[in-house]
Each structure stands twice: as C-alpha cells, then as structure tokens.
C-alpha cells in the first residue's frame, strides 16, 4: 500500500519534513518513503490511499496512562492528590470487578486510538481489574501496550498512616510481584509482539526496601522494565527526607535508577536529583495536565533537558486529566514551561513532538522499532486532517500539530501496517458498544463504592 500526497514529519535523525510525501507499507514495515511522484514511479500499480491535506506523524506514544481510571472520568475533579486518591479514586477502584477493568481498558484504548496514540505504558494495573482482560483488549484492538502490573506490599501513601489504601486494592508480594512474573511469562511478546509486560511499582512508601530490591534484581536478570510514580507531590519528597534521602538517592539505593526504568511526574527534584537522574540514563514521563489539575506543581523540564534526561509525555488517568488525548497534552507541555520561566523558547514545539514520539520510544526501549518514520521501522503512523478551518493556515507543520490539532482531527491511524482508524472511525472496535458498556459499569462502580451522593453535579439539577 502507498499512502500518498501527505506532509510527512518523519522525526528521523535529520528531522526531515517531506511535502507531497508518500509512505510504502509492506506487511508491518515501512518499506520506503519519499516524494509521492518518485514512489509512484518506483512502485507502478501499487494500491494507493490518498492523504491529500493531511499531516502524517509517527504514532504517538503515551508514557504514562491508567487504563482502569478512564471509567472514572470526572469523578474526582478539583481535589489535591491525597484527597483525590484516598477519598475517591482508591475507593472507586477498590470496588472494581474484572469486567469493569476490561470495559475500562477498551474505553481507554478506543479513545487513545481515535486521538492518535498507537503505543502506551500502563503504569499500575491492579490484580482485581483482571490483567488477562487488559491483554485481550490490547490484542483485539491492534494497539501497542507496555503493561505495568502493580508491585506493592505497603497499603498507605508516603509516611502518613491516615492515607490508607482501600482494602479492595491491597496486594502482597505474592499477588503483585509474583503475579506480574506469571503475567510476563503468559503475555510478554504476544499479539505479534505488541504486548510487553512491565513491573508497575507503587510510589516509595508503598513498597518495602526488600521488595523494591527483589523487583529491581528480577528486572535486570529477566529484562523486565519498571515504571513508577516518583516525587509527584511534596509529601513524596517529605517521605524520602524522613528516611534521610532525596527522591533520587532513595531510588538509587534500591536499584531503581536504570535505562530500563520510567519514572513518572518527577516534580519535586533538586539540582542534585537531576544530576543523578541524568547520569543513570533513567527516563521521565512528563504529565503536565495531571500535575496542574491536582496542584502538584510543575516538573523542571527545561533543566532536565539541559542535563540530558530523556523525557516522554503521558496523559495520566482520566480523573486527573479528563482525556486520553495526547495531542492536547502536547499543547500544554509546549506552553506551561514558557509561562513559569518567562522564556518563550523554553520548550519549543519540536521538542514536544519529540517527547510524544521518539523520546517515548526510547523510554520504552522501542526506539529501533517505532517513534519515527524510517525505512525498516514498524509502520505506525497517524494522519491529521489539516484541511479543517481551525488548522488553516499553517506554515510550520510541527506547530500545527502541537499547538492547534486535537484528537478530533485524527483521520487515519496505522499500527503494525494495519489501518485501525479510517475517516476518524474505529475499525477494530465497536465504539457505540464500548460507550454503552462503560456508561453502565461506571454508574455501577460509583453506586457500589457508596459515592453516588458525592459524584454528581455541584449545581442544582432538575
């Protein structure tokens, strides 16, 4: 198949942009790309798919996502993190069934595909949600999923005993760590290698030193990557201080710092933390909307970039973002650092697109396969319809993608050479059925959790 007549932002090593470009897909691979006329001449008679007026980018990669939480969109607005967790989200998630987890996974994946995300890192999937269902949803949909199953053995947040997890979410070493190993043996590499199983460790304070060390040892010996929330709020830094550490010195002490680790949020770091982080090759998942909405603070992205830290981008969960649309996340990532630094050049559009593509691929250890449009790489790409009034005119296509486009502008999504979205419509999933199931199950979860009186409109409803 030849995809023709597009503006192609390759994000290749030279950062080429090809006007009137074409991509030849052979099986699941990009076999060729270049000017449309040249490829037509080279491959006469090849079936074509016309992308006139579209901007093509590498498939977007979300390096932080909670698939279960999409079922809880809008249930915990305008709360800071600890209240958000202890009073709402943990209570709701502690009442999930495996069927709820499967419905939430399908809702998340459908939304991600429709808004251009072709690969995601699930951060902390609890055992009660049904990990098998998550894998089945990834397999059937055609998306790529790096799936972190929770690792924990302490049921509280940071150092305050009052910040306790809901009993329905509490897991021990056998269920969490050993359960992850079982799922890794069962699912890692399945679905034509679109599924990778990760350790999804809880934040420091939620995992004992011994369990962290056992997990990091297994990570090294078996090649299982790790993702973990870290230094998200002031309470996280205070916990580390209470045991005579900074966030990065603690992570280093239990073996978490590694090129196979993605640390999420990383808001409350000092200069030495950033130096340690950069030297270790550990990756960061930046989630500006979540950090802003939960009033957690703003990650020091410009300082991390100067230090050489690889930074990806994530939407986090729907209750602290309200969308899984990584294109919207890109816009905030491009402007929030300008506002606090008083420097309009702080994080340019090009850096943001790199975060959402090739940097994300590096964070997931998949940079040789995805993250840029190059011959021999997987055919994962997204076509944004730039013919619409709100996207015209554009002079720099990267600017148009980062500062103007949203998920609603996604026209075509291809993963592993297969078209999963065409004309803005899902091809591998029934959107209507997913929405109805999610609507039913979300209400049941709220009722089961006893939160119907709190999860509702604040203004009078007639």
UniProtKB/TrEMBL annotation:
Keywords: Hydrolase, Metal-binding, Zinc
Protein name: Guanine deaminase
Transmembrane segments: none
Sample GO molecular function, one term: deaminase activity
InterPro entries: Amidohydro-rel, Metal-dep_hydrolase_composite, Metal_Hydrolase, MTA/SAH_deaminase
Domain Amidohydrolase-related: 55-419
UniProt keyword Hydrolase, yes or no: yes
Hydrolase recorded as keyword: yes
Pfam families for this protein: Amidohydro_1
Superkingdom in the source lineage: Eukaryota
Organism: Aspergillus sclerotialis
């Amino acid at each position: 198949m030849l995809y023709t007549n597009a503006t192609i932002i390759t994000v290749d090593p030279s950062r080429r942009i090809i006007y009137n470009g074409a991509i030849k897909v052979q099986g699941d691979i990009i076999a060729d790309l270049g000017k449309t006329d040249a490829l037509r001449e080279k491959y006469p008679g090849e079936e074509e798919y016309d992308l006139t007026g579209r901007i093509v980018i590498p498939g977007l990669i979300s390096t932080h996502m909670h698939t279960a939480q999409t079922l809880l969109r809008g249930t915990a607005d305008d709360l800071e993190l600890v209240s958000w967790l202890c009073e709402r989200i943990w209570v709701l998630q502690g009442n999930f069934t495996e069927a709820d987890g499967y419905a939430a996974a399908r809702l998340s994946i459908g939304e991600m595909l429709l808004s251009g995300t072709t690969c995601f890192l699930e951060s902390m999937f609890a055992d009660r949600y049904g990990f098998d269902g998550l894998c089945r949803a990834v397999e059937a949909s055609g998306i790529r999923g790096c799936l972190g199953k929770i690792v924990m053995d302490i049921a509280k947040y940071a150092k305050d005993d009052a910040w306790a997890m809901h009993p329905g979410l509490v897991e021990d070493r056998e269920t969490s760590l050993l359960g992850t190993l079982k799922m890794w043996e069962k699912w890692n590499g399945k679905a034509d290698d679109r599924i990778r199983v990760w350790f999804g460790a809880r934040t420091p304070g939620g995992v004992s030193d011994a369990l962290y060390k056992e997990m990091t040892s297994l990570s090294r010996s078996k090649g299982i990557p790790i993702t973990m929330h870290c230094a998200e709020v002031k309470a996280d830094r205070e916990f580390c201080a209470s045991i005579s550490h900074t966030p990065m010195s603690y992570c280093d002490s239990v073996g978490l710092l590694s090129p196979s680790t993605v640390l999420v949020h990383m808001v409350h770091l000092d200069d030495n933390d950033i130096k340690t982080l950069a030297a270790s090759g550990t990756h960061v998942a930046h989630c500006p909307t979540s950090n802003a909405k939960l009033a957690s603070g703003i990650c020091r992205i410009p300082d991390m970039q100067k230090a050489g830290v690889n930074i990806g981008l994530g939407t986090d969960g729907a209750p602290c973002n309200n969308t899984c649309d990584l294109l919207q996340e890109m816009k905030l990532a491009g402007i929030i650092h300008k506002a606090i630094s008083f420097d309009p050049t702080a994080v340019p559009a090009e850096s943001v697109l790199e975060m959402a593509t090739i940097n994300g691929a590096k964070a997931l250890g998949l940079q040789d396969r995805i993250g840029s449009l190059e011959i021999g790489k997987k055919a994962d790409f997204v076509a944004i319809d730039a013919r619409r009034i709100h996207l015209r005119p554009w002079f720099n296509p990267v600017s148009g993608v980062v500062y103007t486009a949203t998920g609603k502008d996604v026209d075509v999504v291809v993963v592993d050479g297969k078209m999963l979205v065409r004309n803005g419509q899902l091809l591998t999933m029934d959107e209507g059925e997913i929405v109805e199931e999610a609507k039913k199950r979300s209400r049941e979860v709220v009722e089961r959790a006893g939160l119907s009186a709190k999860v509702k409109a604040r203004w009078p409803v007639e």
